[in-house]
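Appendix B, record 7
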Amino acid sequence: MNQGHDIIIIQNNAEGNNFSQKVDSRMQQMFKKLYSQEIQIRDIVQFLRGLKDSDDPESQDLFACMVHGLFDEYHCYPSYPLSALATTAVLFGSIIAYKLIDGIPLNVALGMVLEAVKHPADNPMYKFGLQALMNFPARFSEWRGFCGVLVHIPGLHGTDVYRVAEQVIAEPGERGQQAVIHTELPVNGNVEQQDGSPHLQNGTIEQEPAPLSIPPFQSLHADPPLHDPSWYEEPAEEVQDKVLFILNNLSASNIDQKLKDLCDQLTEQHHQWFADYLVVQRAKTEPNYQQLYLELLDKLNHKGLMAEVLRETYINIIRILNSEGTMQNLQERNYLKNLASWLGGLTIARDKPIKFKNISFRDLLLEGYDTNRLLVVIPFTCKVLEQAAKSMVFKPPNPWLMAIVKLLAELYFYADIKIQSKFEIEFLCGHLELDIKSVEAATDIRERPIKEEEIVPVGHLADELGGLELERHGRFSPTTMTAKLPNLANQIQVNSALPMLIQHPELRRIMQAALDRAIREIITPVVERSVTIASISTTQLILKDFGTEGNEEKMRKAAHNLVQTAAAGLAQVTCKDPLRMSIANNLRQILVQQGFSEQQIPEPAISMRVNDNIDLCCQIIEKAAQERAIPEIDESLAQAFLQRKRYRESRTTQPFLDPTTSRYAVQYLPEPFRLKAGGLTQQQLAVYENFATMPPRPIAPNDNVRIPGGDILNEYIAIPPAPTELPVVPLTQARQSQAQSLAPVQPPVPNDQRALLDKINVSAYVSLKLTVRF
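Structure tokens (predicted):
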């Protein structure tokens, strides 16, 4: 309504809200053509635009019927094939992006998208919702409340959608709108943004990318030009204007006429200029018209021009892939995917190979894995390979194609990649009519031998254990954990337990290599498990205990103290036995390789060497877990920190209260545990402060355990009479029970009160267990 066609719409509904059989049949026919790829999404959107602006009653009915058809099918989306679901998601998002609906229909559509992304990340509905959201980020600035809901959905954390929504919330007024990426949204089945205007980031025009601090890809090379660069020339400005006019007015219906006009203007010496313009200004920014430009090149049928276009495509792909700014710039990543589709259309879609000397996709993926650039490499690779569906030669089971798909499957199942990258791989497999679960994953990454240079040479140890640096190549990847291990040479214990090796000049280096290998084998799974458990537990406890604390720095410090202590303790008790076995096996293996027989390597000597050095290795893994736990908990509590920062900056006199805080924690818990207005008391905060001073060692069974904040825990838990009267449970009794059986005390209580008491006991038990040093 209120679109200038109200009278027609009202007349159409005068005799009821049902659509005619003719309209319903046309609706089904349009969607059938869409899903069979007879027409593209952009054509559907343009068709809907025409229907919406039409004064024809039947057109208005068809428009409403198609929109309602999308909505009515919502509950059937989980059963859609992946390719059909992706198409539906892009169409759904494009309808919102191009403002084809408003009012109640728009609210319904946004509600459906929100409901979809609340599903688990492996659920098809989550993928539908995320894909739909990625098609209308330019409208986020219109709905700050909508963005506020988005940033509270855990599954969106770390995605581009989350970052755009966070920008809208963080920047009020006009600045918040400037911070959003203003681009024309795609309607061709891709997730690209295609505006050629300068990219806005944080409200300013982004400048050229910063100098590259990581090595460029070695698997990418562009061919030299066919002629000496001085041979080529730019056409006169008048000719350039005519060429631009021709391309601006090019369509499938007039391509033959425009082709003749273009040939009249261009000479062979202009080919390099035209190739650069076609790739940079057209193919890169206008994915909807790539097929039209490819058809134009086919009709021109000039090998020299085609070679220049392909060369310019490689040059621009290499520039964007090697640009450090591409990792942070959504616009550049979208341009890269556009060029990937263009490259695939120029080559494999026409049964022409992509030469190994130009792009080695296997090496490109491995380099991306090693340098933490899979975020740009995987989408690029997938978009190129999607064009294989149009090929007679390169479609499955082509060996070249399947080798790359198998490596992508290995990254999908065994590497820690973002959910968006996983979705790209799934979409590729759907496009090629493959099931990702049935693709045999390669072993290129998992079976790569440790390079000799990765073992730190004997030398000066600058800062004992302080030399450990964890480069965040992924959340938990082998590259992350083994990026830089400290030099162990000066700390290794070697004594006379191996008398036959005392004079061996490489003895210390042999021991170092054994320890180094053992740590590399163990560190990734141990740190992953320990940090994950510690982070989840810490997040829950911090959110519960700091519900009234408005100072984010106090909250952050407490979280760091707890998560580091918990992660280190879990890592220590988890790694010790596997480390012991791994060191022994590696030491024995290296000695055999050095020419020693089994008889020359007595088992007691091996065991003694392991016992002498096991604590050193445990310390390294503990430190890795502690350092990795900090960014993990910061990411987990980022929204909570932001809430408190905004509260503090608002300078309000009202006490802070987290919306998720339970009323029971504020009103009904006994005095030592009750949350107070204004934040934690010093006595309560001491529980978390004391974690920073706990000894970094496991507690033996006979040790006297000091529990931080023990003066609080010695109180009784007196359950208040409201809302119902519950029995009093002495916490000292619970502590004694835990020390004996690691189980909370559960005294008999009436059935109608058992559930409530169980929750209290479990909460107290978890808190106690985490405060005890492992």
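Remarks on this record: Residues 573 and 774 are 7 Å apart (CA to CA). The beta strands are 200-201, 204-205, 716-717, 729-730.
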